[in-house]
Fold:
Amino acid sequence: MNNVGILGFGKYVPEKIMSNADWEKLVDTSDEWITTRTGIKERRFVEEGQGTSDLGAEAAKKALKDARLEAKDIELIILATCSADYRVQNCSSLIQKKIGAVNAAAFDIQAACSGFIYSLTVGKALIQSGMYKKILVIGAESISRLVDMQDRNTAILFGDGAAAAVLGEVEEGYGIISSYMGTEGVDDDTLRIKAGGTLYPATVERVENREIYLEMNGTDVFKFAVRALPHATKEAAKNGNVNLADIDILFPHQANLRIIESAAKRLRIPMEKVYLNIHKYGNTSAASIGLAIGDALEEGRLKKGDLIALTGFGAGLTYGSLIMRWSK
Ligand code: COA
Structure:
């Protein structure tokens, strides 16, 4: 079977910075509370008129340039997002148009913060099946548009951004080794937006009740996450016959520093091997792991041959992990 890996990578964040001090002006919170409970110092917010597709398109253009490919070379775009520009149509089609990927089919994957891992897994399988040779996988989000700006419990956690990877065949010994995906289905207020879908359409009353915004039971999500992250990582390692001690860098979903520290401890992976940029961007859902990879590349920390594990969890509740040997 051919080896599938990353031929090019790109990331993009909107320019507008929303710091903890900015949040102090809007809700009853403090930089001290947010920093100690989450590790977040600032995040990026989209501007008026800027959509998730704009962020995704910018990241995609950088990934194509990095791969020395043109948009017309791409046969499929898989976009992981839960904050699409429109309720209907798929956001990946907007990106296809914006970058001019005229030969590509496009679809979205909605697996919340696990979306990037799910999308890479699907992309790899489609290439290995022989159906496609070059797939663009993107994680892009504008979660700032979905949070209730009056809700200090939830809103302060999130931010916006995008990352993109061109997937294709790589040399022997490199690329995606294994992955694992899991779901613990819930139908409650653990982590969701209740109104605006087909079951509870957005009526004036529901808008006034603020049901169109993200609601979350932080404690339940926290408990799920500290269990799911180590479990998924161990399962992916097992699937790939990989020893966790051999992992060079762990890229966890950047949701909460305490969750990451707990997961690393359970996996016996020292924090020096865990990549963190949560202080810069907060939780950017499906973009978060890709933004971490993008920053690690810019810093020269991630290099060809490194064995890396990506691991995430999110609404659904979904979780997953993917192990690869970096191929660039
Ligand atoms: N500023 C100040 N105080 C805040 C606050 C804020 N932004 N948000 C909540 N509080 C208050 C609460 O109202 C509560 O007050 P009370 O004790 O008077 O009721 C107090 O701080 C402690 O709340 P608690 O829920 O115990 O805090 P916590 O230590 O569990 O941290 C989260 C809360 C949300 C940071 C944490 O539960 C978490 O990160 N959960 C996971 C969320 C997540 O990752 N979601 C995305 C998944 S993809």
